[in-house]
Each structure stands twice: as structure tokens, then as C-alpha cells.
UniProtKB/TrEMBL annotation:
Keyword line: ATP-binding, Nucleotide-binding, Transport
Name listed for the protein in its UniProt record: ABC transporter ATP-binding protein
Cross-referenced SUPFAM superfamilies: P-loop containing nucleoside triphosphate hydrolases (SSF52540)
Domain ABC transporter: 5-240
Length: 324
């Protein structure tokens, strides 16, 4: 299937200063693809080149090298633009308008015909949970309501690709969840969502794939679960492993901590937390068999994952140290 976005060897050098003598290489040969139907996070520290990438995809900045394609078309091509919806970080809608009035004006500017606007605007307001606030001016909206109004605006032209800049920044946890649920619904409908964000815990909850830019270069891209999985390491919570059994298992099992008291009775055994590092699945099952034979009661065993934030810091930090 054709990617929603593909960029190859993409470069952007800004020139500024006297005689445009100062050059900043904002994108330095970036190649990546965004599959259709994915929620994709574009990540990177300040100045990494994320906004520049978004501007090129929106056709408002030009690449100085390489190429970008949206559904196979150049970003400036009207056929590509028609398929894209955009929610900027600072949208600043005129706040003396109500949400339907704002959507009507933006829809008009986007060339959505009168009769389609009349039908679509109430549908969109319902979809983003603002139908009850149709009479209210935007000046009285909370940050979460404003972001949902912005999302409705970005969906006015029924885009196949939605580009969102920090969609949940400043929104409270309930509002974040509401926005997340809308994005997941859009994904179910086969839409592609590209999120440019610093809020890694949010990205982790909603995105399936990410790309990490640093200093204009793509440093990692892939599925979040695969990127954050710590190779064959498990946390095991169980009753204390007898010394002899633990010695027999050697380096595979390490004590981490006392996990909790198992029950309230004085005779109940404490639960311990161990970290288990088997070579493969057979090794993991061998550990479990040995423990069960030794009378150990297993409470839980789960694979260890880094948070996306830990992963991000690991990936970006060494390069930041080098570049200062
Ligand atoms: N119009 C411009 N003229 C000159 N340099 C620019 C211009 N726009 C961006 N840059 C520079 O290009 C680099 C990448 O900027 P960009 O805004 O794309 O990064 P970003 O990842 O979006 O950062 P942030 O997270 O802070 O928004 C930075 O060094 C920035 O200073």
C-alpha cells in the first residue's frame, strides 16, 4: 500500500544574516515513511527539525534537497493538500465566535461547499464532544475544548492525513483522554495521524510508531513496543526463592527488592521481586519449572520495558553531549 508520507534524503538549509551568509542545516538527509492508518509520533529535542519537516509536508516550506511525497504527490500539489488536515500548536481562533461560526469560516476558506459544511459541522461538533457548547463563544472555552474545536477544524475537509502539533499540550488528563480516544477512532477509520510532540507519555499512549530526529538527522524509527522492549528481561514477583535453588539458577535470577506482604497473617510469606534474564523462552520456562519444584509461589512475571522517555533520553543524550 502507498505510504501516507515518504521522505527520502530530505534536506533543508535555512540561510539568514547579512548576504544570507549564515546557514542552518535543519534537516540533513532524512529518509522515512509513515504507513497509512498509523498514528505516528515525530519526536526530537528543541531544534531537531520537526517543525521544518511538518512545514515541508504542508507545502509551506521548500526542501533544499531530497524529496517528500504525500500519498505519492508533492506536498504543494493541490491533490496532496486536499487530503491533509492540520492543527497548529498555537491556533488562536477568533474568540468572539462560537465553534460552529469558527468552523463555518474556516470551512469556507478551505473551499468546503455550503451544503457540505451545513451537514458536516454539527457532525464534527458531536464527534469531538462539543455539540452541547454550540452557543458558547470560544472565549469561554477551556484549553481542552479549544483543542477539540481545533481538531474539528482540522477534520473539516475529511482528510486522510491529519498533522497535529502538540495536540494535548496544556490539556488536563480528562481532556487528553478524550482527544486520544478521537485519534484512536480516526485510526480505526483508516486515517493517518502525524503528531509532533514533546509529551512523550502521551505519544506512548496513542502512537504505534515513532521517528526520533536529532540535529536534523533521523536517529531512530520504528514500532514503540519494539523500540522500548528490554531484551529478554522479566520482573518476577514470587515467594522467596530458597538459597540452593537460586544458586543453581546462577546469573539468570537476581534479587531486586521485597515486593509486598502477601496477605495480612503473620505466617504469610513475603513476596520478593526478582529480575530474570534467560537466554530464550526455553530458559524462562526452565526457571519457572525449577521455582515451582522448589515450592515457590509465583505471583506475576512480566517483561521489562523502558518508558518512551527513558528510550528517548538514551538515544538523544549521547549525541547532544557531542554536539554540545
Ligand atoms: N526560518 C528559519 N530561519 C533560520 N533558521 C531556522 C528557521 N526555522 C528554523 N530554523 C532553525 O532550524 C533548526 C530546526 O528548527 P525546527 O523549528 O525545525 O526544530 P524543532 O524540532 O521543531 O524545534 P522545537 O521543538 O523547539 O519546536 C533550528 O536550529 C532552528 O533554529
Amino acid at each position: 500500500m502507498q505510504p501516507a508520507v515518504s521522505v527520502s534524503s530530505l534536506e533543508k538549509t535555512y540561510r539568514s544574516g547579512v548576504f544570507r551568509s549564515r546557514a542552518v542545516r535543519a534537516l540533513d538527509g532524512v529518509s522515512m515513511t509513515i504507513p497509512p492508518g498509523s498514528i505516528f509520533g515525530l519526536l526530537g529535542p528543541n531544534g531537531a527539525g520537526k517543525t521544518t519537516m511538518v512545514k515541508i509536508l504542508l507545502g509551506v516550506a521548500y526542501a533544499t534537497g531530497g524529496e517528500a511525497r504525500l500519498f505519492g504527490h508533492e506536498p504543494g500539489d493541490p491533490v496532496a493538500r486536499e487530503r491533509v488536515g492540520y492543527l497548529p500548536e498555537k491556533h488562536d481562533f477568533p474568540d468572539f465566535l462560537t465553534a460552529p461560526q469558527m468552523l463555518n469560516i474556516y470551512g469556507q476558506m478551505a473551499g468546503v461547499p455550503d451544503e457540505i459544511r451545513a451537514q458536516r459541522i454539527p457532525e464534527l461538533l458531536e464527534r469531538v464532544g462539543l455539540d452541547h457548547a454550540s452557543e458558547q463563544k470560544l472565549s469561554g472555552f477551556s484549553k481542552g475544548m479549544l483543542q477539540r474545536a481545533g481538531l474539528a477544524q482540522a477534520l473539516l475537509n475529511e482528510p486522510d492525513l491529519l498533522i497535529l502539533d502538540e495536540p494535548t499540550d496544556g490539556v488536563d488528563p480528562v481532556g487528553r483522554r478524550e482527544i486520544r480516544d478521537i485519534l484512536l477512532e480516526l485510526k480505526e477509520e483508516g486515517k493517518t495521524v502525524l503528531i509532533n510532540s514533546h509529551l512523550l507519555s502521551e505519544v506512548e499512549k496513542v502512537c504505534t510508531e515513532v521517528a526520533i530526529l536529532n540535529d536534523g538527522q533521523l536517529v531512530r524509527t520504528g514500532n514503540i513496543d519494539e523500540l522500548t522492549a528490554v531484551d529478554r528481561t522479566y520482573t518476577l514477583v514470587c515467594t522467596a526463592i530458597p538459597n540452593g535453588t537460586r544458586a543453581a539458577l546462577g546469573n539468570i535470577v537476581h534479587v531486586s527488592s521485597v515486593a509486598s506482604q502477601n496477605g495480612s497473617g503473620a505466617d504469610e510469606a513475603s513476596l520478593q521481586r526478582y529480575s530474570v534474564h534467560p537466554e530464550d523462552r526455553a530458559g524462562l520456562n526452565h526457571v519457572i519449572d525449577r521455582l515451582r519444584n522448589a515450592g515457590v509461589e509465583i505471583d506475576s512475571i512480566s517483561p521489562v520495558r523502558q518508558t518512551l522517555e527513558d528510550y528517548f533520553v538514551d538515544v538523544v543524550k549521547p549525541q547532544q553531549t557531542v554536539t554540545g
